[in-house]
From TrEMBL:
GO terms for molecular function: hydroxypyruvate isomerase activity. It comes from the Bacteria. It holds the Pfam family AP_endonuc_2. This is TIM barrel protein. The active site is at 150 (proton donor/acceptor), 245 (proton donor/acceptor). One of its GO terms (biological process) is glyoxylate metabolic process.
Length: 265
């Protein structure tokens, strides 16, 4: 089986307005895309949602991954799952994401866990996270979809650093449709054992994302042996998408030479 690739349009093709990016991805040869939460708030107006769905549909691409609302990412927020007082926003974004999925076919949702908050007991945050994740998992199950848990780098207050951290949360939750989002860049930067991740945990990975390290550029711009890790994933039965989620070192449309090389092998 040849790996299936999608492109993350929240980090690639940022030279263009968001609604023009699906068509640009299609022109670059992709038939599948993913996004972080594409709106500024958890509950955008209906027009914004319709325009987003329309841009995907008109481009002829499939939406294969979508983040739930995660707060203000540029300011350092990394999710509402464990953030006391913001349960309503999180649940509203879950409901909206499910609605978008019904129109686009998306069946994978990334629930960023959230940062530790000064003055709040981590145990309280973790208990809240389980309640919010149960809500999301049950909503996703209604459309046969998966909720993803992602270890993230470069945010000291974010508690999920390794695959084991994310899978421990999934184990405590006990929902069969909660899986690991294995972003090989974040895991590598955090010092996780990528060989172990792609062999021992392959069956529990619901989605994969790639960027090279250091730098988070396109594959080939750094030192990660991404081709080897992806081959191991495939050998261990992974059949999902691999999301290109990197910061291109040049124009986005010119950053896919690595993909041509891989397809030629």
């Amino acid at each position: 089986m040849v790996m299936r690739y999608d492109v993350n349009l929240s980090i690639l093709f940022t030279e263009l307005p968001l609604l023009e990016r699906p068509a640009a991805a299609r022109a670059a040869g992709f038939d599948a895309v993913e996004f972080w939460w594409p709106f500024a708030v958890a509950q955008p107006d209906d027009r914004e949602v319709a325009e987003f769905v329309g841009a995907i549909t008109a481009a002829g691409v499939r939406l294969v991954g979508l983040n739930f609302f995660a707060g203000d990412l540029p300011s350092g927020d990394r999710g509402l799952v464990s953030w006391p007082g913001r349960e309503g926003e999180f649940k509203a974004s879950v409901d909206l994401a499910i609605g978008i999925a019904r129109e686009t076919g998306c069946r994978a949702f990334n629930a960023l866990y959230g940062n530790r908050i000064e003055g709040v007991d981590p145990a309280e945050q973790d208990a809240l996270a389980l309640r919010n994740l149960a809500f999301a998992a049950d909503a996703a199950a209604a459309i046969d979809a998966t909720v993803l848990l992602e270890p993230v780098s470069a945010i000291p207050a974010y508690p999920l650093l390794t695959a084991a951290d994310a899978l421990a949360v999934a184990d405590r939750l006990g929902r069969p449709n909660v899986a690991l989002l294995a972003d090989l860049y974040h895991l590598a930067v955090n010092g996780d054992d990528l060989d172990a991740v792609v062999t021992e945990h392959a069956a529990r990975i619901g989605h994969v994302q790639i960027a090279d390290a250091p730098g988070r550029g396109e594959p080939g711009s750094g030192d990660l042996e991404l081709e080897r890790y992806l081959a191991q994933l495939e050998a261990n039965g992974y059949q999902g998408f691999v999301g290109a989620e990197y910061k291109p070192t040049g124009p986005s449309a010119d950053s896919f030479g690595w993909l041509t090389r891989e397809e030629d092998q």
